[in-house]
Amino acid sequence: MDSNSLYYSLDLVAGSGYTFTAEQRAALQTSLIILRQNYNFNRVMLWGKIFGINADYFIVQGRGEDELKDKKNLYSFNCVDWFLLPPATDAMIEEVSKAAQGRFMGDPSFKYEHVETHRQGGEAEAAEEEDEVTIKVSEEERLVVTIHQIDREVSVVPRGAFIKSHGLIQTNRSFNGLSHSEAGKLHNFLHFTEPKNLKKKSILEMAYLDPSIDFLDPLSDDTPKGSWSLQFECGSNVCVLRSLLWLGLTFYHVPMAPQHGYIYMGDGTKNLDLPFML
Amino acid sequence: MEARGGKQDMEQQKLHTAACLKAFMLTNSTKTNLNLYDHLTRLLMRLMDERPPDAVDVIEDMSRDVKRALFVERQSTLRAAPHTAATQRLAERQRLLFTRGEEGDQEDELVATADTPALPNVSEVGFYLEQAGVGLGREEMQRIFLALKQLVESQPLQHCRLWGKILGIESNYVIAEAEYREGEEEEEQSTEETAEEEREAETRDDEEESEAKESNPLPQSTYKPPPVVPKEANRTGVNKFVYYVCKEPGLPWVKLPSVTPAQITAARQIRKFFTGRLDAPIASYPPFPGNEANYLRAQIARISAGTHVSPQGFYQFGEEEGDEEEAIPRDSYEVNPDFEGIPVPEMVESLSTWVHHVQHILQQGRCTWVNLAAKPEEESYEEGDAEEKEEEPDEPEPEVGPSLLTPLSEDAELFHTPPWSTRISSTLTSQYAVAVLRSNLWPGAHAYVCGKKFENIYIGWGLKFAGDSYNPSVPPVPQKEYPSGPEITEALDPTLEEEEMLNAALEEQQAAQEELDDMDEEEEEGDDD
Predict the structure, then answer these.
(1) Distance between A14 CA and the closest CA of chain B, angstroms
(2) Compositional bias of type Acidic residues: which residue ranges (chain B) (predicted)?
């Protein structure tokens, strides 16, 4: 969520149970202005927090000219001193997905180790040919990958909030919010990430799409069906979406108003048991 | 004179014509209900006001503009969207929260507050929770506060607190934990339930009898259901408190049924999201006995038992009733009147300063172990509680769990994750900070302590941390097929020719039999196939 809207937006997502203390809010208001200046961001989003065993990571995301591509993530433990995270690479994602397990510890230099045994040769002499490879991943890398995956899988924007013009993806200044009835339907919310399924759609389906708005995947195409919980909260005035895949991700949108945003406050683990739980 | 008279005539005629024309111009159009006179007046007035250049060229446009400006939109032909109805209905329900009750009630309440505080100070709790980074938003907390007040006024409750909130897919549950006043137990429900149980038992008996009466062609099942673990009575063990839930503050509070051991053991083995409808069925394996209300109640019992903690020394064992802060004598412990509070840094440093104050639930699904004559609770032991066993290895015998007021430092690790994390709410102004405890086994369970004040709250999905992946239990092996034999194998129907041949053969045989009437032949029956 936009750091300029923290005054009200944190209250709108508080229905999930987590909020920021007054001290943290005050610290964020101060430090994010400086951060934006120092890194020359167009705007700064409060991305969320990840709970560790010993300490919690606070994460913000700086956005450049292109809202989708120019992203930089920073983390902090006290909401004042921010550290830049490197972008996620494919190799890093693969290593982390193999090695990192369990909860975050709260120490960026903590090493997750995973011993992998490669088998070479036939089954007969398998015992001799086993080759042990130890994969070591630091928690900072895991943090990078987790943020990347959450952004990739469950970042949400309402339809029409962003437009694509001349190849750049920017906020739509004339976006005035979805209507109440539109906000109750999942296909009006889009994944704010590179589209995966859009090109697979048939021409008939594509005919109704507006290329300057509908350049993202809608949530209604997600598998499994029902991986989102859509409710109206705060006296049924605010549309709140919660991801059941990444428990802790909350999105809010005030119908008939341009306010929207998402935040992740959880332990940074994906809910792999989802198919059993619906 | 004539000329003058003619002139006058002409004048009059002109005036008459002019009057006629004016009258004509003043007649309203049947289509638009406008008249030309007024229109021209407006047009000329506008011309005088605006004085446009080349007025003659734009006079038609101006005329049209003037006409258009006359149209006033009275009402939209579209009806208001129906969504306002839901919002409005909720607002009307919630408005009742903001009305003051009857005068008598107010006095009663004042007396009550002087004696025993039935209504908790939710706004204070909310304040401390916000320090801890937990909460539902201030306005929502206030609404819940008012809803709790409504609950306390409508029910004979001795004590009540906000237990927490469980998120569901379609709606959420706000949960209040309450205790009835002495003697005001809800008798009806318990009698109802026992009646139900009796009825069930009766039907079961009936079935058995009717089965016995039949000539019994079917083989009897050798399966005997394991003995049912009896439910704990109200005010004891897992049914110590009653729980009320509501979907939104302002909507009616619904009392949850009391929980049975079977429900707790089943809830330990399944992992399901709540839908938000209390009457929704639970589709799971192993099957859960009951609907979502029962599942919710079972999870509440498990969460309470696992995560309700207090600073050490706040409660003590003892026979005397100390009633400084809470005059409610709890089951086996009571408030320590001499408790002075533990400094916050100490509470953050060491888990041994926190104790559980809710009884541990045994693998049997009860807090106190009951001996089931023949087979003491093996059925729940072998199937379910690998998970619980790992969690609490300090509970070796099924008969005894950790006693009440056991420090948290004795809690065991589960999946290499320490069960609790502690935080201090502020490092900058640590002298006024509160100590915060977060459960890692039940994500969403929090406790804070500040001096003598502490509170537990759970806000989350009602699911236990399940390690890297959850393994649903596999259905049992399917039963063996009935051995296949000729008596249950389907055969082809005989064709007409075959029947005729058979009949012919029979006739021949009959003829032969008539001839040899002294002898009895047995082969006939063999041919019948």
Answers:
(1) 5
(2) 182-211, 379-398, 514-529
HEC profile of B39-98: HHHHHHHHHHHHCCCCHHHHHHHHHHHHHHHHCCCCCCCCCCCCHHHHHHHHHHHHHHHH
B293: containing domain: 92-98+109-185+227-369+383-460
B positions 98-157 inside 8 Å of A (CB): 130-140
- How many domains is chain B partitioned into structurally? 1
For Cα atoms B467, B293, B175, give the angle at the middle one, nearest 5 degrees.
Answer: 80
Q: Hey, is the C-beta of A15 within 8 angstroms of any chain B C-beta? A: yes
Give a yes or no: residue B474 inside a domain. Answer: no
Mutation target vs A (from B78, B79, B83; most A CBs, 10 A cutoff): B83
Q: How far apart are CA B351 and CA B348, in angstroms?
A: 7
* Cβ within 8 Å, pair A181-B428: no
Task: Measure the CA–CA gap between B402 and B395, rounded to whole angstroms.
Answer: 6
Q: What chain B residue is nearest to A11 in terms of C-alpha separation?
A: B137
Read off the pLDDT of each residue in B448-471 and give the average, rounded to a whole number: 85
Q: What would the two tokens of residue B115 be? A: 């004696």
Tell me which residue in A53, A78, A273 faces B421 most closely, judged by beta carbons: A53
Taking a C-beta distance cutoff of 8 angstroms, is the pair A161, A172 a contact?
A: yes
Query: Would you say residue B525 lies in a domain?
Result: no
Q: Once rounded to an integer, what is the mean pLDDT over residues B468-488?
A: 79
ipTM of the modeled complex: 0.88
Amino acid at A253: H
Residue keyed to tokens 């759970």: B458
Query: Which phi-psi region, left, alpha or beta, contains residue A15 (left: φ > 0; alpha: ψ -120 to 50)?
Result: alpha
Q: Among A19, A236, A277, select the one facing B86 at the smallest CB separation.
A: A236
Residue of B nearest to A55 (CA): B423
CB atoms under 10 Å from CB of B23, counted, come to: 10
* Burial readout B446-463 (b: 16 or more C-beta within 10 A, e: otherwise): bbbbbeebbbbbbbbbbb
Residue B309 located in a structural domain: yes
Where do runs of H (alpha helix) occur along chain A?
Answer: 6-12, 22-39, 90-99, 126-129, 139-154, 180-183, 203-206, 274-277
Q: How many CB pairs under 8 A join A and B?
A: 118
The per-residue pLDDT for B209 is: 47
In-domain check, residue B241: yes
pLDDT at residue number B204: 47
Q: Determine the Cα–Cα distance for residues A23 and A254; give it in Å rounded to an integer.
A: 26
Q: Between chains, do B459 and A23 touch, taking CB under 8 Å as contact? A: no
Q: Does A242 touch chain B (CB under 8 A)?
A: yes
Mean pLDDT, rounded, of chain A: 86
Structure tokens at B85: 């109805």
Helix (H, G, I), strand (E, B), or coil: what is residue B5?
A: helix
Give residue A127's pLDDT: 52
A12: which chain B residues are within 8 Å (Cβ-Cβ)?
137
Whether residue B417 lies within 8 A of chain A, CB to CB, comes out as yes
